[in-house]
Structure formats: structure tokens, C-alpha cells
């Protein structure tokens, strides 16, 4: 499904400050993408995510500032259409950020007053959680209330817990327990659980395409969810027939193809968008260069491209191993600007956090 330019989305989208410090912020010479509904708060989370704790401020005079600090954390919540969607929300700075993140996935818990419109928490009310992180594995122990979920939420719970925890650098895999006992299957619909859950298990899995599983590859793409007043980015995992192991071209092809017609998701790509040359990969800089035809402009004037099109392109491509930034060319030239006049003269980085809440 295509999102037409006559919608007021762009005016709304671009009035907010953007992921990781907003429009025009440069990092290492690269521009950063501008997802919707954002804040201009920039947090240095590298040390925090590595250890799972927040360090204390040594200067007593800064105690008030320390108390006011917050940690921008991705919470994977359920939107009104049933998709598991990251929403980056400012949580109080405290020890045990991984546990805190999961506690904010519990219905009727501390996330209640922070939920964006149309979203709900994924874990059953009253669920208590404990998290132990060791050697890259987060072992999560749920209380008995964990089993009190609706059957249709079973896969969404697995995805939300896994993707919420693996945002932290110290977590590579996730293991689930309930009342101290390992869960080998989910309590309600008995979905088997791997001992090592990872993002490779997918999210919002799209099974609408009929492809040969043995000759296809799973990839996670991003589309637009929400409505005119509030668009956000939704990750979707598909199985795709990749020709010649060219994952980059396959990602672009799928974005142009768009989401399923019944998905309630949108795309900025028109069906006549195409690459003019093969993607160029700079392995040293982890950069990919793409040369599109002029149809990438859509209904905009020459050299103007949709910001959200750039965003979903960068989010989708940087899901691929070895790609950290994307350079977009048209007819071999890099003289592009977004609809609000922002120049795209440098490669665009993936943001650390997606869909920053404006709350």
C-alpha cells in the first residue's frame, strides 16, 4: 500500500526533533536518519548498556542533574493493529536497565502513563521479572502471572522480550524461565522456545508470500505504521528469494514491492523505483552506495526525496551484517534534499534508537 504525498504526514513528521539528536546532526561525517515522533535528547549509553548499570555522578553539586537524568530505552509494545513496535521512551536512570525495560512491558505497570496513543504493554498484569546477564546471555525469570496472557499474544511476547533485551550491547541471546524453571515451550499455545532466543527469530513475521523456505532468506524490513497524525516505523520479517546472494538489491526490491495489501502498513516507494547500477559496498567503512533512477522522487520535484523513504531504507539495510551507513545517489549524483530542505550530501547512519516518543 502506498502513502500518497497529499497526506499531511510530512508536515507532522518533520516538526519533531529527530532520532539521536535531530535533523542535521553529524556523527563521524555521516548524517543520521530522522524517524518520526522524536525528542532531541541525546544520551551516551555505551557504558551503561555494556554493564547493565548506571554509574553515579561523583560531583555532589550535580546531584539534582543526576536525579533528572533519564535513559532512552526501546520498549517493544503492541500497536492497535497488533504489530510489535519499538517505542523509545525516557525511563528513570537506575541500576539494572535490562530489568527496568522488561518491567515497562507489564500491563498496568510503570509504563501505563508513558504509553503512546494506540499502544499497549505485552506482558500480563502482575508479572514480576528478574534478569541475570552473563557472557552475553540474559536469563529472564518470570513469576507465575506470566502465564495469564491471551493466546494471540504468545509470539508477540517472545518477540517483544527478545528485541527489548537485545538492544543492550551486553545481551546477545535470551533464555526464559518461570518460577525458576526453564521454559522450553510457552505456557498457553505451547510454542517451542529456543534456549538462545535472538533477533534472528524474527519479528512481525509475514507469511503472506509463498516462497521455498529452503531456498529463501529471512530479512527484516521497515514500513510505516500508524495514521496521518502519528506515523512510526514497524519492523517486519519476511522470507525472500535472494538472487546471487545480493542481499542489498533484495532489500531494495522488497521495499519497492511494499507490504502486503492487507497489512495496514504503508510504503513511500513507488513501484517504478529501481537501481540503475549494482550496489557498491565499502567494507572498510561499512557503507553501501545505491544509485537510483529519478522515480525515487515520487511526486516531489527533482532532487527532492521523502525523509521517511530514506529512513526505512536505512533502517532496513542496516539490519544486514556489515552495513552501518547508506549513501543515496540519483543518476550517479548525491545532490539530494529532503522535503524540508535538509541536504543528504553524506552517508546516513542507522540511529541507536527507533521511534522516540514525544511524551
From TrEMBL:
<feature type="region of interest" description="Disordered">
    <location>
        <begin position="45"/>
        <end position="67"/>
    </location>
</feature>
<feature type="compositionally biased region" description="Acidic residues">
    <location>
        <begin position="45"/>
        <end position="57"/>
    </location>
</feature>
<feature type="domain" description="GerMN">
    <location>
        <begin position="248"/>
        <end position="339"/>
    </location>
</feature>
<feature type="compositionally biased region" description="Basic and acidic residues">
    <location>
        <begin position="350"/>
        <end position="359"/>
    </location>
</feature>
<dbReference type="InterPro" id="IPR019606">
    <property type="entry name" value="GerMN"/>
</dbReference>
<protein>
    <submittedName>
        <fullName>GerMN domain-containing protein</fullName>
    </submittedName>
</protein>
<feature type="compositionally biased region" description="Basic and acidic residues">
    <location>
        <begin position="58"/>
        <end position="67"/>
    </location>
</feature>
<feature type="domain" description="GerMN">
    <location>
        <begin position="98"/>
        <end position="187"/>
    </location>
</feature>
<dbReference type="Pfam" id="PF10646">
    <property type="entry name" value="Germane"/>
</dbReference>
<feature type="region of interest" description="Disordered">
    <location>
        <begin position="340"/>
        <end position="359"/>
    </location>
</feature>
